[in-house]
Amino acid sequence: MPSLQIFFSFLLFFLFLFLLFPQRARGASSDCSISSCPAGGPPVRFPFRLRRIQRRPCGYPKFDLSCSNQTNLTTLTLSGSGAFLVKLIDYRSQKMWIDDPNNCLPKRFLSHPFSLHDTPFSVPGDSKNYTFLNCSSSQTTPTFPAKSISCLSSLEYTVYAVPTGAYYASAPAAAPSSSPELCSVISTALVPRGVTYERSNGRVSGAGVAVTWSQPDCSACEAGNKACGLDTDTRQIVCSDRKKSPGLPRAVKYSIILGVGIPGLLLLIGIIHYIYGKIFDRLHRSSTDDLSTSTALQSANVVVGLDAPTIESYPKTLLGESRRLPRANDNTCSICLGEYQPKEALRTIPECNHYFHANCIDEWLKLNATCPVCRKSPEGSSLVTPSSSVSSSSSSSLASLQ
């Protein structure tokens, strides 16, 4: 019975998982509703998809986003350039703004080139070379057009980004870094033209770089407020009525399901165990009662015989040489079917006056309380159990031997 309980427990557990994660269990009926990372971020829908949250058919190839393991914010990983924080997605204009997770894009540009190779994205306009200068805080602001980079600056110095052409056109041709009025050059880097800036505390810091995509083209769907998607059979872009986004985030829904579902499942398993235990006890009790009843019936059906004193009280006759019988023409014992011979002892049952060999009828009456001929039961006789009969028989045998 315990193995049956364990089987049903596992069956209910897998049924619970099937209901909890319908997308994974049902396969084809995938839910491609709008989603986002737990810590927030732009809403994610086609052509993008969030790995581990939305199924692969919900997005377009190479448009995968993910939730950062450290911050749980929306992240785009570019081959050759690393991971970038996704700040905004404009689905209608098909433009996305990405930023450095540490809010310092210029540092990323100085460490390695910004590349969109092997990605579906591009930067509007051409990239431009910028020269980064390290200027002491005691020096005056450079006269050429420059933008301070707060994430690279400190109290002792300020880092400026200057278009390379404008810098070298304004600075002296010979050893510009040796002049006390000028700043030292850190490096020159290619900066995408799509970089935008925001001003904070009087300084200008990088806010992100804008990238665009042309394929898949969902502009017609977005203009008609339709949901854009990919037909998996024809591989064509299709528009459909936009489904209302769920009221609660996916993570909150799963938390509610886990918080309510697991205790409910444990309670259900406990109730089932209790019911099975009751059924098992009832079946066990029923089988025990049936066995007891069967034993009682068998005991009731056991035939008992007479005790030894009652048998010895029946009349006993010793035949003489003349073999004169108590009943004429009745010279055969009904038990052994042998003829009566002289000197043999016969015993008579008083109630019916039938007689037999004394040895034959004695053994018969020890096991049966009725006459073997007419089946009458002697009146006023004492019945004994088979074991008592055997004991009495054994005692009689021992007495005869003595």
From TrEMBL:
Domain of life: Eukaryota
GO CC annotation: membrane
UniProt membrane topology term: Single-pass membrane protein
Subcellular location: Membrane
Domain RING-type: 333-375
SMART domains, per database record: RING
Regions crossing the membrane: 254-276
UniProt protein name: RING-type E3 ubiquitin transferase
Species of the source: Rubus argutus
